[in-house]
Specification:
Layout: E1 4-6, H1 22-35, E2 37-42, E3 45-46, H2 54-70, E4 76-79, E5 82-84, H3 89-94, E6 104-108, H4 118-127, E7 131-135, H5 145-153, E8 157-161, H6 171-182, E9 188-190, H7 200-236
The chain binds fe (ii) ion.
Length: 237
């Protein structure tokens, strides 16, 4: 069985619209382990009603790790955030509100409204040594091929969702994700899991086959394990 590392998940309990309880977190983690996941980056939403600071998140992560230990469940968890775009991200980092994975920020855009100062925000973050991982670019309805190309040219990395290729988010997202795979624009594939009943858990083999058909085995291993593993390995140094 392949090994995977997930880099986008809503497993940390009681913070956002993902797992509500520690038991719900454990249930999702068990499902991930069954698919071959060895490490998971927890990326609770930071937006609107979901504004939990780092201290609170770390406390929940500690409790979750204790419970995993008690139940002899072997998984490595890392903490980051899925941060909805705003012009004060640098302040949020300074104020210890949001977590990055090393110096990688998981950035989310609005689904239906184009952000006109996106270039400026990206430039400002990159000038402060922050690398940007744009989460699920295939899900932004207003994105066109030129937008993907422009972002890639600006060194923004793309993380797509496993379930997009089987149409979970509609035909437009499915077509866009195919385009991204075919044009080598994907750096990471992730679950974006919110619950233990998400379709990925019953359709993982089909999803895997579809992705491999588009990118080949070697790239599949890079985008599901090696690329994120490089970032995580740097954290340990
Ligand atoms: Fe998410």
């Amino acid at each position: 069985m392949n090994s995977y590392i997930d880099c986008h998940s809503h497993i940390l309990y009681g913070i956002d619209d993902g797992a509500k309880t520690i038991d719900a977190s454990i249930k999702i983690i068990k499902n991930m382990i069954n698919l071959g996941f060895k490490s998971i980056v927890l990326t609770p939403h930071y937006r609107g009603n979901y504004l939990t600071n780092n201290k609170e998140k770390k406390l929940r992560l500690f409790n979750l790790n204790e419970e995993l230990k008690n139940q002899n469940i072997d998984i490595k968890l890392y903490l980051a955030n899925e941060v909805k775009i705003t012009s004060n991200i640098l302040d949020l980092i300074k104020e210890d509100e949001i977590s990055l994975l090393g110096n990688y920020l998981f950035l989310e855009l609005p689904f239906d409204t184009k952000i006109y100062n996106l270039d400026k925000i990206i430039y400002e973050l990159q000038s402060n040594n922050i690398n940007i991982i744009l989460v699920h670019p295939e899900r932004y309805s207003y994105f066109k091929k030129e937008d993907f190309e422009k972002l890639i040219a600006s060194d923004v990395l793309f993380q797509v969702n496993y379930e997009s290729i089987i149409g979970k988010y509609g035909l437009d997202s499915k077509n866009k994700v195919k385009y991204l795979y075919k044009n080598n624009m994907v750096s990471f594939v992730a679950s974006d899991v919110h619950s233990s009943s998400t379709i990925m858990f019953s359709k993982f083999d089909i999803i895997k086959k579809k992705i491999i058909k588009l990118v080949g085995e070697e790239t599949f291993n890079d985008i599901t394990y090696n690329n994120i593993n490089k970032i995580i390995s740097e954290l340990k140094k």
